[in-house]
Design a protein that fits this description.
mainly alpha; 3 helices; 77% helix; flat
Length: 73
């Protein structure tokens, strides 16, 4: 079975995430803040990637009104 570097990177990041959550399990407020910031960052990155892929520019209000409304700008 060949070594898949993407699968290895995903497994390492999952393990690191589990270790991070386990280390902060007694600090629920800090863990909640960290995970919510991570989720917000990932959602923003995914939205930016999808907008760039579909050629949605914020300078064109007709095509980007959904992004602006979702971001409450």
């Amino acid at each position: 079975m060949p070594l898949d570097p993407v699968a290895l990177a995903v497994a390492m990041s999952f393990t690191a995430g589990c270790a991070f959550i386990h280390a902060l399990r007694r600090h629920a407020d800090t863990l909640t803040l960290a995970l919510s910031l991570l989720a917000s960052g990932l959602a923003t990155a995914l939205g930016s990637l999808l907008a760039a892929r579909n050629d949605l520019l914020l300078s064109d209000p007709m095509h980007s009104w959904g992004l602006v409304a979702a971001a409450n700008i």
